[in-house]
Amino acid sequence: MVEEKPLMSVLCWGRTTYGQLGLGGIEEEFISVPRELKSFRSQSVKSIACGEMHTALVMTDGTLYTCGNNDLGQLGHEKPRSKPRAYL
What we know:
Blueprint: E1 11-15, E2 30-36, E3 45-50, E4 54-59, E5 64-68, E6 81-87
Antiparallel strand pairs: 1-2, 3-4, 4-5, 5-6
């Protein structure tokens, strides 16, 4: 059995139209070179799920973070998020 180890850094690239990369208010519409998602430097990420317009990250402590298009409240926040925010 292989032991799963938490991710210690998260890299992201791709389209940023809806804040789905979690990089915050950046001007570029597309990131072609991987960038570190600095919000999670001091946390251990257990898993990541990416969609066309959103991203969800689960920490080893079970906290769920989401960012991206939230037009219909699908991320569990009141407003669209360009930086990951914990869903409580």
